[in-house]
Design a protein that fits this description.
290 residues, TIM Barrel, eight-stranded parallel β-barrel, 13% strand, binds 3-methyl-2-oxobutanoic acid
Length: 290
Amino acid sequence: MSVPAGKLALPELTEMKHRGDRIVMVTAYDMPGARFAEDAGIDMILVGDTAAMVVLGHEGTTVPVTMDEMLFLTRAVARAVHRPIVVGDMPFGSYQVSDEDAVRNAIRFVKEAGADVVKLEGAGPMVSRARAIVEAGIGVVGHIGLTPQSATMLGGFKTQGKTAEAARALVDGAHALEAAGCVALVLEAVPAPVAEEITRRLEIPTIGIGAGAACDGQVLVYHDLLGLTEGHLPRFVKRYANLSRDIRDALEAYASEVRSGAFPGREHTYVMSEEELEAFRAPGSVPVGD
Ligand code: KIV
């Protein structure tokens, strides 16, 4: 498959790791968000299944989002950008059952939605899914640690790899996903020393979210970093703006100006020439309706 001009090529990710250039990833779910991300020089855009929570209104779970919804969102993002690598996040149920399902749905992300690569959660049996997708010619980003699609099995949205045994299992999973051909690995909510060890051992880059500063890159959810998410936020989120406050203020000002008649003003209103207006208002110019 040829890479469109200007698009960051996948091998560049590993080169960035070896040069020590941090990889910047953010989620986006629509055209404006994706364009802002590209303009900011973001390297990878993840159309995350967090869409379930941050744009589709499901409370505290990514599980309900469907393939069709993810394809719809991914299409909007992929159409909007040129350079960043667009990662389509495979939703729960789209790859767990079989390698065939995983390949079929990964192909849909690339062919129908324009994703450059896909992401899936977990190691263990999911390593075989990742390998099958890679063998079909599609890049895969792995995701281990806190894997929200299986949060119920993990006992909630909790830090993973906190015991030596659990940390060793994460290291094993990371090696297995790399061996399966993954191009990068998201590490979510794992102790920093564990993420550091995985990062040191792998050739492919690690992208951390709640995994400390030693990862080769970082990812945050768009709505969290821009202050569009309300309520409790995980410890690993840093807010770089408070857009929900700005949006509320703007909408309240709009509502109040519409009610008071201050909006629209003359500058927002179209006019016509005096001559045309006079003709329009002349008796008989407008036929009387039935
Ligand atoms: O769906 C998502 O947004 C993610 C990130 C939190 C890594 O998987």
